[in-house]
Structures are given as structure tokens and as C-alpha cells.
């Protein structure tokens, strides 16, 4: 791969291990697989070393360690991982402005892990709460409680980490608008820097999907789903959070820079099983087999399974789809320069149709979605790109 000089890039590290598999999860993740932990981390660090010269030619803008549950690793292996990343990349993260995030289950935060995070530059933690309701947590097969969340935040703050995101989920089986409102209220008492709020999506092959097909559980209706979303937007914006992306809310100065990398179609490198990279107009995907991943890297071979060149048509569609997810929308000068078009002139009939339907607003400089447009975003994208 040939990379331009001084390109800003983001780095993603995938840790596919969990203490238990959530009932809605279709990610590549493994529970009860401790035998793989150490060989996998060694392989991950080997992959990073193979990309070292490439990374050195560019400027790291953000780092994100996700999963799975990265904090499900033992304290010692966890520290080895983040210490090694720091040493390989020569980050000195504590003296620069790199946003460095790690995902965590509230049950897995320990003082030793928090100390290591602070020491090696992790300055943002994303905690997967999903719900403050114990019954809903059991439906999702989550292993933590709301009390675990409170305790994990106390530990993180005690060690100097206050930039905390909390994930919330709605449209959970048997969830009501009242129970979702209660979850939001409880989260707001903690005053996290950032809140992500997602609708549960039933993915084929998951435990919840199987129960749904067997008519053993009931999910909120589409209207209830929309009502929950509107409730979240109203409650969170009223509490001072900026609704800057369809599912994301932040206090001032606390937007997630790493995710903005994806939404603005900026380059990133992914490390680990099933991870993806986007660079030099191409997308690269790693193998989803943990055994193959470890084996290939033991032979100093990159674990890339597929490569896809992103042509102008695909790039244009991704630009529309991803940038309209953000509240700021699409700047006409940016898209015109990138694709050598006059977007407003070319798409005005479609924009006017969606404007009249109350799904977007636009002026001479940009277009962005309304709240109703966020709710019906798939329809908006299909209309614009058809």
C-alpha cells in the first residue's frame, strides 16, 4: 500500500473477547476463550509492528480500542497491551492532544486498569450500560448492574479520567417508554461527557433473533421506537447535550473525534481479527478467524482477507450517507470540490422534495437533516441516491 506523506490517520484495535456474549451481539467476539488471550495480543502487536513504518509517515489523530470487551483481559495482560502500543508508537500521549478511547463493560473496571489507562495515555472511556433496568439487562444478557456503572465511574474519576461516554439502548424487548425514560434520568445524574443512544437492531444469528422468530419475546412497535428516540433527544438536549450525530450527544468540547473520522470518511487503520481499514481510496478487511489471524502473523504475514478499491461512485454515496448522519450535514463547497460537481444544482429537485416532507433543511451553503429526517434517514438516503 502506498500512503501519502503527513496524512492524518486514526487507529482502531479490536479485542474480540468478552466475559459473556450479549444476546443482541453479532460482532466477531468470543466468550470463555482465555486460552486465546495472550497469543492474540502478541499477534495484534506483531500486526502493529508490521505497519509501523506506514504509521510513522503519517500523523495519528485518534486511537480507539474496542471489542468485544478490551477490559475483560486480565489486569496484567491489559497493561501489557496498552504499554506495548505506547512503546511501539512512541506516543507520549499524556503530552499531546490525541483522543485515546477504550471500550469497557462496567463490571470489568479495576483500579489497576484505571492506573494503567492513565499512565499510558488513555483519556476517554466508553462504558456499555445499555439500560439501567435490571430486567432489560437480563434480556440483553449483560453481566453488570447500574451500581457497577456508578462504581466504575468513581474508579475512573479517582484516577483522573473524566471523559466518559455511556451507551444507552432503546427498543429492547419488553421495554416501555417509561422504563427508557428512567434509564435516561439515571444516566443524567452521573453527568457523563458523552452519551450514545442506539435503537436495538435484531441481527440474524443472535440469541434475541432466535427468540423473536420463535415468538417468545415482544419488541416495541415502530411508533414506540420513534417515540423513544424523540424522548432521548428532548431529554438530552434539555440537559445541555449537543445532538451532533443521529445517535450521539456530547457536552461542549466532548464530541467523539474518532467516530467523526468515520462519519467524515477520513483514513483509518484497523488492527485485529475482522477489523477494517480505509486508506488511499481502498478498504481492507482482516480475516474473521482468530486461529488464522494468529497463524498468519506468526509467519509475519498481514491477515488481510479482502481489498476493495473505492471508486468515485462508491465514495460519493458514502460521503452522502455518512456526512448526513451528522447534525452539521453536507457543506456544498466541500462536496463540490471533492467530486467536481455542483451538488445543489444537480440535486435540487430531490432536496426540494425532502424539504417539503420536513426531512431536511438547506441553504446556499449546506444541507442537513431535521429530527424527522434522522428518524427516517434510510428513506432520505435512498431518495437522494436513487
Low-pLDDT ranges: none
Task: Decide which structural class fits the backbone.
Answer: alpha/beta
The CATH superfamily of the largest domain is known as Aldolase class I
Q: Helicity, in percent?
A: 40-55%
Helices, by number, come to 16
Number of discrete domains:
2
Principal-axis shape equals: globular
Instruction: Assess the beta-strand content as a share of residues.
Output: 15-25%
The largest sheet, given as strand count, sense and whether it forms a barrel, is:
9 strands, mixed
- CATH architecture verdict of the largest domain: Alpha-Beta Barrel
Query: What Rg is obtained from the alpha carbons, in whole angstroms?
Result: 21 Å
Fill in the CATH topology of the largest domain.
Answer: TIM Barrel
* Lateral arrangement of strands in the main beta sheet: 9-10-8-7-6-5-4-1-11
Mean pLDDT, as a whole number?
93
N/C terminus separation: 33 Å
- Could you give the count of β-strands? 17
CATH class of the largest domain: Alpha Beta
Search tags:
three-stranded antiparallel β-sheet; 43% helix; TIM Barrel; 21% strand; alpha/beta; 386 residues; Arc Repressor Mutant, subunit A; 16 helices
Short overview:
This protein is an alpha/beta fold. It has 16 helices and 17 strands.
What does this structure look like?
The protein is globular, with a radius of gyration of 21 Å. The protein has two domains: 256 residues, TIM Barrel (Alpha-Beta Barrel), CATH 3.20.20.70; 58 residues, Arc Repressor Mutant, subunit A. The longest helix has 17 residues. The protein is an alpha/beta fold and 386 residues long. It contains 16 helices and 17 strands.
